[in-house]
Amino acid sequence: MAEFKPTFDWLKQRPLCLLAFGFGSGLAPVAPGTFGTMAALPIAFLLVLIGIDGWILAFLCVALFMWGIRICNHTEKALGIQDYGGIVWDEMVAMLLILAFAPFKWNWWLAAFILFRLFDSIKPWPIKWFDRHVHGGFGIMLDDIIAAIMTLIVLGIAAWII
């Protein structure tokens, strides 16, 4: 049996799934996680411009994480597929968390993007362990938050060195 491929029309009929798919960015035919991560950039940019950054944005990310558990659980059930690659809410929230603490400069945001995608794609320990052993909406969200924390550690070391 062929794998179900959601469409934008399918997402429009399911608002929680539309969120899980990063407003459609998760429908990208290749590297949907990268496109989902990219979707977070203009959102973060606008939030920073209106004064929502740093710890305020981090606390917002906690709420988005909690809501993401429900969104991702719902979408997994609607698709009938565990941890479907097009579910990118986790990448969006993780990238927003990283950008809450990254300097508001293009080179830092680019470094943050590249590092996060590297950690999320390669899944070094402990990310891989959590990805394999924790499932459902919480599992989907958790491994990306761990990748975000690892990204923040590397960015912190770079800021300290520079």
Automatic annotation (TrEMBL):
GO terms for cellular component: plasma membrane. Its EC number is 3.1.3.27. The chain crosses the membrane at residues 42-69, 108-126, 138-161. It is a multi-pass membrane protein. InterPro entries: PgpA, PgpA-like_sf, YutG/PgpA. Its cofactor is Mg(2+). GO terms for biological process: phosphatidylglycerol biosynthetic process; phospholipid catabolic process. It catalyses: a 1,2-diacyl-sn-glycero-3-phospho-(1'-sn-glycero-3'-phosphate) + H2O = a 1,2-diacyl-sn-glycero-3-phospho-(1'-sn-glycerol) + phosphate. Pathway: Phospholipid metabolism; phosphatidylglycerol biosynthesis; phosphatidylglycerol from CDP-diacylglycerol: step 2/2. Its main location: membrane. It is an enzyme of class 3 (hydrolase). It is found in: Cell inner membrane. Residues 19-157 form the YutG/PgpA domain. Keywords: Cell inner membrane, Cell membrane, Hydrolase, Lipid degradation, Lipid metabolism, Magnesium, Membrane, Metal-binding, Phospholipid degradation, Phospholipid metabolism, Transmembrane, Transmembrane helix. It comes from the Bacteria. The keyword Membrane applies. PANTHER family: PHOSPHATIDYLGLYCEROPHOSPHATASE A. Lipid phosphatase which dephosphorylates phosphatidylglycerophosphate (PGP) to phosphatidylglycerol (PG). This is Phosphatidylglycerophosphatase A. It comes from Neisseria sicca ATCC 29256.
